[in-house]
Here is the input.
Amino acid sequence: MKHSASQAALTSERLHFRINGESHEIVAPVNKTLLEILREDLGLAGTKHGCELGECGTCTVLIDGEPVLSCLVLPIEVQGHEILTVEGLAEGGRPHELQVAFAELGAAQCGYCTPGMMMSAKALLDSNPEPSTEEIKEYLAGNLCRCTGYLQILEAVDAAAKRLHSCRPDGSGSNSEKFRRGEP
Amino acid sequence: MSYRENDTNYSVVGQSLPRVDGMRKAAGQTIYADDFTLPRMLYGKLLGSRRPHARILSIDTSKATAMPGVKAIITGEDLPVKYGILPVSEDEYPLEIDRVRFVGDPIVAVAAVDEMTAEEAVRLIEVEYEDLPTSFGIEEGLAAVEETSRIHDYGPHDNVHKQINLEFGDLDSGFEAADQVFDNTYFYSGNNHLALEQHSAVAQYGADSRLTLWSSTQTPHYVHKALAKVLKIPAARIRVIATPVGGGFGGKSDPFPHEFCAAKLSMVTGCPVKITLTREEVFYAHRGRHPVLMNVKLGVKNDGSITALDFQSFVDGGAYGSYGVASTYYTGALQTVTYKIPAYRFRGVRVFTNKPPCGPKRGHGTPQPRYALEIHLDRVANALGIDPAVYRKSILVDEYSMTVNHMRVTSCGLGECIDKASKGSDFNSLHGALPPGKGIGLACGSYLSGAGLPIYWNKMPHTSVDLKIDRGGGVTAKCMQIDIGQGSDSVLAMTVAEILGIHPTDVNLVCADTDTTPIDLGAYSSRVTFMMGNAAIDAAEKLQKKLLAAVAEELNLCEEALSSGTERLQSAAGQIVHEVDGVQTGKRISFRKAVELAEAKFGQLSSTGSFTPQKLGGPYKGSGVGPTPAYSYSAAVARVCVDLETGIVTPEKIWIAHDIGRAINPILARGQIEGSVYMALGEIFMEEQAFRKGQHQFPSMLDYKTPTFLEMPPVESYLIETNDAEGPFGAKEVGQGALLPIPPAIANAVYNAIGARIDELPITPEKVLAALALQEKGELAQVGPSKFPDYQWPDPIKIDPVWYDEPPEKWVETRRRDGSKC
Here is the structure.
């Protein structure tokens, strides 16, 4: 755990979180953002930072299923809520269909916006399992990507929605299942 | 024993396979520079200048030094060695010593126990400045200044960094032969790469006096060289590891102050030091697109054929050299590789200004002149009453020809690109047939498949690949190349897998590490697929030879029959299969078994392949900028809707055809094209580095706007496969060339929609409305630069052209590999 040696540092607080289904308790300065706590105190570096202003969407995580910009959230506000990061996206060792589709369909180039983008997309698909192209664009417009021109991301989210929809409950036979097994 | 008889036989190349680093990226497991920490690691911060141009009178660090948690503070005196990416303009210190040249110019670096403390310490540092005269633009940059107020003490005069005057062929006769001369000025604004990952580096100087630097860099080799020079440590004791780059686009191609400072602070403290730039600092580190003011004077016959081109560029360089000399040459180098131009003069000037230094951004110095030239050709076509697509096709450069400025053109699919894009968009019928406010425009472009020359002069390979096979059948490929998102890891794995007949996921990659991987010059100039691809083929074929020899021995095959080609050993899907006259004989051996046989016969299986481009370029100074083993070509059509009330331009759809030689992985190639289109749209409509009194107006993503999902139109991409004779599997570049035709295609579409020209970027609603107002008043409906500098040019260097009708074999050395078809 790091705390500032400077006078600028505010008091530290004991904080309780539910992150990716696990309980965490840490002591951290109250002025640290959720993004900083995740990356620096909990080692969850999958969540990225791009602008420090709540503009780029790179630091998106889900709180109780809703996408939020973790660079604008103070941890004390979200105690007792369920936080989901990219590290919690796979279930039972099986990647989420979004992850498979992003990897297969070119939606991740440099990969830096990918975690935040997928978290927003998950929130969308959880609330709207069959979004139209326009709905996907609207919903993801707060997540910037500088590599792809967005089109392959759009295709990946669309493909993931379709796969999730047609997937058998146990996931067998899905593309992600095949992918995990290394089958072409 | 050629590995492939024809291009339809590839088993890996041409497949839209998932990128090899895709699953890790989608799992959030890719470790970028800022994602890792080391025990006892300190955090560094840089103090940037608050003045655009000033002498540093004093620096008082006493308050910061006294702060608890502060471990070290360094200033310019601690690193008094100049560096610069180009040997001709080594004009930067990691921390400036006696003078600052732009707001944000680093002067002090602090290491502390955490980032907050380092930030606080930086705030406590007091700097006394004495202001100097400033220069913020091209016109100011050309003005005479006192010797003591020059931004740098080198360059031909005043604040001019570089001046170029090159004349190819007989310009006067060219213009005399013209029926009409078209003369116009254009301006392309500057902008930032805005990679989502901010620059970051971690340095660790150990008790063994060895330094390791992990950095988000596109050019680990050049950073390695620069660290050795500045830190005065033998290169042999420095290791640079490029971490996966979270977006580069050219913005991480220079050695940067934070890299030197992290290293020096680690040397001073004995602790690892990380410095991650803030988004604001990234805007100051910059190295983005140069703003360029251009004049185009083009002589044409009544049929449109070009008789002469006179091109002038005034390049706003910002405060340091960076790649600027090359950038300036690039504004004049590639005009000739798309259309036949028999006489050509290029004059260019780069000025120093008190702004963040410009450098290479996607297309490096070529989108600006391409924008000007392609709008200019649209003017010519309109004036002559020729369809712009038909017009361009009538003046196309020949494949396998030499341009007037000695650029070697080999495979060229530009005609096919124009056909595809115009057919897909129905350009020929719709051009001129759309209602007011709706427009369609076309433009072309060309880019390098890697610079023909390295940044520092040498005769060594530009890239090498080491391969090693372990007894389990795993293949390890090592190369200093770095995947910046462009997919070079996948190209390396797929290339090796193709030759050895295995799956790309069975190729392990070790990349971008100066200790463990052989040279690759870096991820710039679209060089990696072409150059590394050839080196990887070279290395894999050497191993394949051993594997096949061992297999032939095991299967008791006749060597003569194999070498004559009547019998073959085919490798695919992890099997080596024996064929006679194309029919399988049933004799086969698994790749893994073949590895054991070959290792028993030859010993440890490893190989090295290298690639050095052949000598290219004409007999003149500056001829090193522009030549490449192969040019990619592109043509794009844009359809736009212009709101005549508000002036808002909406791109409705883009059609783009890109001659990339061959798509090694079509889905990744398409991603590069779509990404280029997107980046171009940002530059056209909204992205601009704007300054007020030397202060960056928008050093944040809140104000520096980029396109979102909602601004991105549909894009129809066509991959044109010309199967280049020298490219790996026929491949050329993809990823930069696709940006080039987009800005002029949009500008031409806007003209088509409203009958008014916007000759400067960005195309904003204000400019559109201004153009419409001029039109209303019956004045010349064009908005662009109002004046052009009258510069005292130095005497031209006159170079005789190599003429078109010379037989190609005189200067084209084709190096087709065995069995590959052209």
User: Anything to note?
Assistant: DSSP finds six helices and five strands in chain A. The domain at 12-88 of chain A is CATH 3.10.20.30 (Ubiquitin-like (UB roll)). Residues 152 and 176 of chain A are 18 Å apart (CA to CA).
